[in-house]
Amino acid sequence: MKSFSAKIFKIGVNPYVLLPDAILKHLFKQAGREKGHIPIYVVINSQRFSQTLVKYSGKWRLYLNTPMRKAAKKDTGDVIEIGIDYDPADRTVPMHPEFELALKRNKKARLVFEKLSPSRQKEISRYINHLKTEESRSKNITRAIGFLLGRTRFVGRDKA
Q: What whole-number distance in Å separates Cα of residue 10 and Cα of residue 69?
């Protein structure tokens, strides 16, 4: 694991830090690539967080969510200490069996789902997987199918 200090900046509503070149080179070497999202983990005040390093507007940024900033007791304008390394762990989000069955029953919705970006597929699957009751899961699977067919909104989205 590598460590660094960086000032917290904000773009829009998103706090982030920029990584030193030496850290980026280390992460790229570990990941075996310099493009796309790089899965990483960070350690802030002995707490570990899974995160993704992304390139936006020509700069690689590590976005700091609320739990990360709370762990650091830091916010925009402050300097934060971060431990970081590549995270080779599988981040596949399994599809809930009921949602999978609904997609098997509706081929048009399945085709639309398969054409979605992996991140959108993961977003929908994660949302359905985290629902607590069978009733809310069933209701939201119906909404997700309607969303894929262009009939309803789902998770604040208008179009698939």
A: 13
Tell me if residue 139 falls in helix, strand or coil. Answer: helix
**What are the tokens at 89?**
């762990």
Where do the domains of the chain lie? 2-86, 97-148
pLDDT digits (tens, 9 = 90+) for 86-130: 999 988 889 999 999 999 999 999 999 999 988 889 899 999 999
Which of 2, 132, 130, 6 shows the shortest CA–CA distance to 68?
Answer: 6
CATH 2.60.40.10 fits 2-86, yes or no: no
Pick the closest to residue 141 from 92, 108, 96 (CA basis): 96
**Any idea which residue has 């596949």 for tokens?**
92
User: Any residues with CB less than 8 A from the CB of 84 and at least 6 apart, and which?
Assistant: 1, 2, 3, 4, 19, 23, 27, 40, 41, 42, 43, 62
Residues 6+ away with beta carbon under 8 Å from 72: 44, 45, 64, 78, 80, 81
- Residue carrying the six token digits 């509503």: 13
CA distance 79 to 100: 45
Give 126-157 pLDDT, tens digit per residue. 999 999 999 999 999 999 999 999 998 877 66
